[in-house]
């Protein structure tokens, strides 16, 4: 893949991933405009590597605040760690359950279906974007309730909502989880911290899944030479570095708008972007 394509995808991913506007939808639209196939194993793997870059940006950006809250004491670590585990389990149950339902009840040939096949569906992506936009706008009307923390109940609900985002490109994970936290009365900063802590937990599992999927496809068509897989990962590694740098910029933007009461602007953008996706698709 040409360096120019990787540069564009990494910039789109790095900015959009950490803003509540669905990076996946933006990257998929960019891929289509450049004549690339967003449903191919190579492109889904590159997308995951771009997510990896933004994951490291999240760790770098939030590390100081996490250290002051999540790692402030043994009790805080146990409490916050338990909430992350609860939310992640809820994500897995809802996400994989939803994928199973889609595969067996809404697909003509479930034996050959993979959830990545949905990634190129413009109507589905536009609907997900619009849904995220409405959720963000509604949550922006919620009053910030001071120092309310994430508790077991809110962690369970936030994790379940994150699970709804897994099959649908366009349903922004960060937008949905932060908005859910706000709707449940969680402090804005705490909702943001918890949302991105969940992202750090979730991303490695997604990377392993996509790496294995890519290896299976490449091995079936070109033998089991590991060099084939490594060659396919090179563009993704380059994109990972670029998305890390742009991700740091995007996080500063998100934090500032969230804390200054401009959260609804992201929702309005999602509604606009849903129309663009329909036009491009």
UniProtKB/TrEMBL annotation:
- Look up keyword Transmembrane helix and say if it applies: yes
Q: Which InterPro entries match?
A: UppP
One example of a Gene Ontology biological process annotation: response to antibiotic
Membrane-spanning residues where? 41-63, 84-106, 118-138, 194-215, 227-251, 263-280
Q: Name one Pfam family in it.
A: BacA
| Top class in the EC scheme | hydrolase
The EC number of this protein is: 3.6.1.27
What family is this protein classified in?
Belongs to the UppP family.
Miscellaneous comment text of the record: Bacitracin is thought to be involved in the inhibition of peptidoglycan synthesis by sequestering undecaprenyl diphosphate, thereby reducing the pool of lipid carrier available.
Q: What is this protein called?
A: Undecaprenyl-diphosphatase
This protein's species is Undibacterium jejuense
Report which gene this protein is encoded by: uppP
